[in-house]
Amino acid sequence: MRIFEGTGLQAIVLLLCGSILVGCTKDEIAVQLSAELSSESVSASSTSLFLNIDANSDWTLSVNYKTGGEGWCTPTMTSGKGDANVVLNLSANSADIARVAEIAVYSGDKSARNTLTQAAKTGGGDNPGTGNLKWLEIPSGGGNSNTKIVTHSIDLSGKSVRNYTLMYDKSERIAYWVAYPHNPVYIGSASRTDAWQPDPDFLASDQAYLYNGITGYDRGHQIPSADRTCSIEANTQTFYFTNMTPQLGALNQQMWASLEGQVRGWMSTCDTLYVVTGAILRTVGGNETVNHAVDKIGGLIAVPNYYYKVLLRLKNQKYDAIGFWFEHRAYGSGNATALQTKSVDQIEALTGFNFFANLSETIQNEAEARWAPADWNL
User: Is residue 303 part of a domain?
Assistant: First the structure.
């Protein structure tokens, strides 16, 4: 009898332990799921964006087209396990109305849904409209049938934020501008990665082969590596080939590098500094000769005739702006001075771009017309 009592007690204990273990296992594998688009609205041009998925289990993805037909949004992955950054490739919208898709991610009994809107056609060809990119650093105008605008995003403190945006010419293989916000949150302890690689948002055939440099030139960053040290991811993206131009070492390693340091100094003393760095082959109405460098596999990449930076500073709830203009030549060492500056209006006239197009017209006109190097200690 005692044996049976003991056996029954053991069975009860084992049953209770089993129930506890089962309960613990269920808690440990509770499904977690969230998904966030790097941008919920994009221009009419062919482009790409990220869907950042945070999951702890298997997931599937589907695109549910609400308007504008089907097949215009193609994800690089439709299933996976755990966290992922899925690239959504969008074809150009040639219709006169915007189109909408719901991006849905499923895991277990949970789902995460985002609504994506692509703007209506804004012009001919693949000329990118920027009306749906409402950040203050974004320029407008100046595109052509070979240009494409892409925004690169990063994870920062658990949130997807923009790293930088660029307008890239797939024929000449350079970006005409790279635009980004700059404030201390982008500065940290990450080391320079030297992670030279093609931009994943463009075909490799549309980019120069820059793993081993460019004969006769530096691989000149437009957004500097030192401006993005908050994370390895942020710094790695500055080494995409689309961010590079063939730049003379006598410019890149001397006054241009000093100007980049000056920009970081101005950033550290204001709320936010909005930066556009660019490369120009021909000025508006100009007939400058465009030369081409040769990459290590014989591909051509256009050599800019000019470089520029335009800066919009928000400080004490006020905006002011300044521009820098460089012919592609040596300027010697030392910091940039007032001699290299122009008003933003003057640089707009040279480049054909409308800088800081999302700033209110009154503030924009005042800030861009003013030329005051002394305000920047120049």
Answer: yes
